[in-house]
Amino acid sequence: MTSALQERAGRRCHNVLNPLHSAHYFSPDLGRELAALGVADRDAVYFAARAAAMGAVGAGVVTATFYNFRHELVAKHVPEVWRTASPQDVLAARARAADATLRRLLGDEVIGSPEMAEAAQLALRATEACVRTARPLYAAHADLPVPDEPHLALWHAATLLREHRGDGHLTVLLGAELDPLEALVSHTATGKGMSPRWVLATRGWRREDWDAAAGQLRERGLLDAEGELTAAGMDLRREIESDTDRLDRAPYEHLGAAGVERLRELATGFLTTALSAGAFPEDMIGKS
To answer: Cα-flanking dihedrals φ and ψ of residue 83, to 5°?
Structure first.
């Protein structure tokens, strides 16, 4: 398999593994676990759960590594959240939430299946080729221990692969000269990104910020007057994904073509079950 084909195969595998990690962010289990520690605000829950592996970092670190959140929203909750719950306690609560979420979405039969153990083994093998250099969120999570139970080991590996790709993606966005909101607006315009309503409700941006970012993209010839991507805009988004694939190639090359295909097959089955159980809000993705 050529490098380009391997990269695209890696992206397809990522696209079914990543939701298995991120489902817990939309689960009542995470909110319940963090509320028991005194963290009740939805935004604080997300910032704490995703940043805890880095320790009690400040707002600047979270804004830098998460990229597409308005700094003022981050600063509203970080570092204050660490005065309520330590990163260690948050990590333990997040693990309990991931366990509860996967058990609820997949069922005990899938959780205990040989296929789950196989998927965990394959995903962990892929992570062996991930690198810490210039990947702070991945590096922080890579220092965490691998859980013993296969479904949590798979979730851990999916987390590592998600953050490894994500850190590389931010490098690509900087190279494309897309600021945080321009990146969101242009991704939404592909039809594959988070809807404007969800962005404005969860990322701290205001409608005037969104409109200003869209205007900047129009000035660059990347969006048209109707908010659709121009040919140049579509080319840029394709280049962003291709460059992200290239920077994320190593784990999937290490796993090998057969391993990548088998992991994608297994993860697709798990994801299909999770989606049918309502893992994500139905209106989250789209242009409107």
So the answer is: -80, -20
The full length of the chain comes to 288
Beta bridge partners of 223: 229
Query: Burial of 94 by CB count in 10 Å (0-12 exposed, 13-18 middle, 19+ buried)?
Result: buried
Quick one: which H or E segment has residue 88?
helix 87-106
**Burial of 163 per CB tally in 10 Å (0-12, 13-18, 19+):** buried
Cβ-proximal residues to 38 (8 Å cutoff; 6+ apart), any chain: 84, 85
The rounded distance, in Å, linking the Cα atoms of 276 and 127 is: 28
Q: What is the pTM of this model?
A: 0.96
Kindly state the greatest CA–CA separation across the chain: 54
Enumerate residues 6+ apart whose C-beta is below 8 A from 265: none
How many Å apart are CA 96 and CA 84, to the nearest integer?
Answer: 18
Secondary structure of 223-254 in the HEC alphabet? Answer: ECCCCCECHHHHHHHHHHHHHHHHHCHHHHHH
Q: Whole-angstrom Cα distance, residue 7 to residue 9?
A: 5
Taking a C-beta distance cutoff of 8 angstroms, is the pair 282, 196 a contact?
no
Alpha-carbon dihedral sign for residues 89, 48, 14, 239: negative
Whether residue 204 contacts residue 175, with contact meaning beta carbons closer than 8 Å, is answered with: no
- Backbone dihedral angles phi then psi of residue 285, each to the nearest 5 degrees: -105, 140
Quick: pLDDT tens for 52-102: 999 999 999 999 999 999 999 999 999 999 999 999 999 999 999 999 999
pLDDT digits (tens, 9 = 90+) for 180-222: 999 999 999 999 999 999 999 999 999 999 999 999 999 999 9
Q: How many helices (H) and strands (E) does the chain have?
A: 17, 0
